[in-house]
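Case study B.
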Amino acid sequence: MTTAETYVTAAYCVVFGIVLLYVVIIALKVQRLERDVDALAGSAAGKAAGEEKRDG
Amino acid sequence: MRRIPLPVLAAAALVLVTLALALVFFVVPNDADQGFSQRIFYFHVSIAFTAYLCFGAGAWKALRHLWKRDPRADLESYVAVHQGVIFGVLVLLTGSIWAKISWGHWWVWSENQLVLFLVLFLFYAAYFMLRFSVDPGPQRANISAVYALFGVVLVPVSFLAIRLSQSLIHPQVFTRHGPNFGGWILAAYIVSQVAVLVLAYTLYRVELAGKLLDLRLRELRLA
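Model:
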C-alpha cells in the first residue's frame, strides 16, 4: 500500500468508525429505554393487580 | 406530510453509501494533480455540506420553536445540532488527514477555511454545555433556540471563507460557473453527497425517535 492509499483508507475508516460508534451509542440508549418500558409495564401491572384485589 | 419509514431510509442509506464507495474506489480515475489522495474529497466535501445543512436545520427548528412555541421543534433543533457536531468532527478529521497528504501538515492555522470551520464547530459544541447547564423546561428551550439561531450566521462565513481568503491552498471546487469538475468525478460526488445526506437524515430520525420515546416515558412515569 502506498502512503496515499494508507491515508485515504484511514480517512474512510475514521468516517465509518465514528458512524458505527454513534449507532452503538444509540443502540445502548434504546436498550435502556426498553428496560424502562419493562419496569413501567411491571409497575402498571402491579398497580392494576392491587386495584383488582382491593375491589373484589 | 407522510414520513418515509425508517427501515426504508436505512436501506436506502446502505445502498447509496455502498454505491458511492464503489464509484470512489473502482470507477473514478486518479486526479491529475493530487493522485489517489483526492478520493478523500468525495466524502469530506459531502460531509461538510451535510454538517452545514444540519446546523441550518437546527436554526430553522429553533426559529420554529421561538415562533410557534412548539416543544417538539426544540427537540428537533437539538437533534439537528447534535448531528451537525458529529458530522463536524468527521469534517475536521478527514480534512486533517487530507491536509497531511497534500500539504504535509495535519493543520494549517493560516488557512481561513480551516480556522472558521473550527470556530463554527466549537460554537456548536458549546451549545451542549449551555443547554445542559440550564434545567429542563421552557427557559432551556428558549436559550438553546436563540444560541442555535446565532450560530447559523457562521455557516455562510465558513462556506465563503475560501472565496474571501487570499490564500489558494485550500482547493475551491465550487465556483459561480458551477463545479470545477465533470464526468465520473461529478457523478461520484453527487452520489456521495446524496448518500451522506440520506445517512444523516436516517441517523437524525433514529435519534429523534429515541428522544421522543424518552420524553413520553418520563411523562408516563410522572402520570
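Chain B has one domain: 40-222. The remaining cases will be described in the next quarterly update.
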